Amino acid sequence: MRNRWVIILLLLAAAGAYYYFFVRAGGPQANGMSYAPALSADGDRVAFHSEADNLVPGDGNKAPDVFVKDLESGEMLRASQSVAGEEGDAGSYNASIDADGRLVVFTSDASNLVSDDDNICVEDGRRFNCPDIFLKDLESGEVERVSTGPGGEQANWKSEAAAISADGRYVAFSSYASNLVPGDTALCSEQQNTRNCSDIFLKDLETGAVTLLSAAAAGEPGDGDSFGPSISADGRFVAFHSRAGNLVPGESNGVPDVYVKDTLDGSIERVSEVTGGIGGLADSYNASISADGRLVAFISAADNLVPGDANGREDIFVRDMESGVIKLVSISASGVVAGGNSSRPAMAGDGGSVAFDTTAASLYPGDTARCGENDGAPSCSDVLLKDLGDDSVLLVSGDSDGAQGNWNSYSPSVSADGALVAFASEASNLVRGDRDACSDATGSFNCSDIFLREIASGKVTRISVPARE
User: Is the residue at 234 inside a domain?
Assistant: First the structure.
């Protein structure tokens, strides 16, 4: 039978750009890009955001939405809608999911997910609904706005990435708002504009209490922006990165560092430093913490965190917060250093392994795929899994037979036991029938999809597809 193609033209008026989606008939294909998977600790559900409008029926808002795929039933759920089922009137993204996959937190620009959402931000003369953090209960359908003060006060500026504890009680998030806690008066400058610093907050969803985490042990707010929270299973420890210079005594390296806040006793510790309290000599960021809070994975360009790190690249490290030992993760099993940048570490909850993406071609044998667009290196970005026990390195972003993906893969998320890894990829050869092609002003390319790899069997499944009727 002759193959037939359906061509869909989508105009994104706000961005002033045209996107073409080519979808071959005969199989369910997402008609847009999908990103940033978040795998539940038990491995039963995957949350992600997608520009596709055909993953669930009735998706007509022409904006990115947050979806959750149930890996047992195959059901696809849209999280970014109100309790009445009304779809968001603007985009939603950056999901985090609790241990059993019932609760999802995400960022949204929408104003209609909950009632009385009318906090307006003004930036460069443009008025828009302030992005907020929301929590969706996938069983009851209820939606709660998280980025509010203890009495329900609306945030007076933008709130961004969030992370939820295993039991769903605590949510850590970043926000530029100055009214979520008393005394949040630290100011930061950006492009000659002065604004409130981005801070890390913890919301207790049972009591409504909000705590400022990006603060010194004595409570002084950080004097620089803080981003990227990652939370332990019980919500006690929160890792994040910050440009602040006053969170710990002796902070003098003048670059972003990674920190861990103990929410029980209020203490804060710098992660990206060597024995003796000497900080990394270059940027450190993007923390991922183990379930018990003992291990923290992070990115750093610093060359003084471990001996022999002279590759001049951004690497992945893991610090044991009890022993203080830092381990270089983005290195081959035989000790060959990475020849490209590594990013987006994702720690397994049990602390046994770390997934990350990298453009280095030297970390596992047979890395031959070339993309020619990554930080000066021709190697495609691959997702790898490092076993912290035996130091073995496994290619995650390959097909079920182990063949390497033919284009970039990134943004891994790992189940608690390290048995499953979800990731995003633009490769077209990871599963049969991956024929969704996207195009923009730069040309045509395979749409980014969400995949799941079972580590023991090697099986790879595409997640971001519409359910068959």
Answer: yes
Amino acid at 324: G
Residue by residue, what is the 3-state secondary structure of the chain? CCCCEEEEEEEECCCCEEEEEEEECCCCCCCCCEEEEEECCCCCEEEEEECCCCCCCCCCCCCCEEEEEECCCCCEEECCECCCCCECCCCEEEEEECCCCCEEEEEECCCCCCCCCCCEEEECCEEEECCEEEEEECCCCCEEECCECCCCCECCCCEEEEEECCCCCEEEEEECCCCCCCCCCCEEEECCEEEECCEEEEEECCCCCEEECCECCCCCECCCCEEEEEECCCCCEEEEEECCCCCCCCCCCCCCEEEEEECCCCCEEECCEECCCEECCCCEEEEEECCCCCEEEEEECCCCCCCCCCCCCCEEEEEECCCCCEEECCECCCCCECCCCEEEEEECCCCCEEEEEECCCCCCCCCCCEEEEECCEEECCEEEEEECCCCCEEECCECCCCCECCCCEEEEEECCCCCEEEEEECCCCCCCCCCCEEEECCEEEECCEEEEEECCCCCEEECCCCCCC
Nearest to 34 by CA among 336, 452, 447: 447
pLDDT at 18 over 50: no
By C-alpha distance, which of 206, 142, 143, 210 is closest to 175?
210
- Which among 326, 257, 322 has a CA at the least distance from the CA of 293? 322
- Residue 230 placed within a domain: yes
- The CATH number given to whatever domain includes residue 181 is 2.120.10.30
Is 225 inside a domain boundary?
yes
Residue-wise pLDDT for 142-187, tens only, equals 999 999 999 999 999 999 999 999 999 999 999 999 999 999 999 9
Q: Which residues of 239-248 are buried (b: 16+ CB within 10 A; e: fewer)?
A: bbbbbbebbb
Percent of the residues in the chain that have a pLDDT greater than 70, as a whole number: 92
- Domain membership of residue 335 as a residue range: 34-462
Residue 206's alpha-carbon distances to 167, 169, 231, 358, in angstroms, are 11, 6, 17, 39
Report the pLDDT value the prediction gives residue 26, as an integer from 0 to 100: 40
Q: Which two tokens stand for residue 432?
A: 């049969």
Give the mean model confidence (pLDDT) for residues 191-210: 92
Query: pLDDT for 380-421, tens place per residue?
Result: 999 999 999 999 999 999 999 999 999 999 999 999 999 999
Question: Rounded to two decimals, what is the model's pTM?
Answer: 0.92
Distance between CA atoms of residues 456 and 256, nearest Å: 37
Query: Does some domain include residue 327?
Result: yes
Count of structural domains within the chain: 1
Ramachandran area for residue 217 (φ above 0: left; ψ -120 to 50: alpha; else beta): alpha
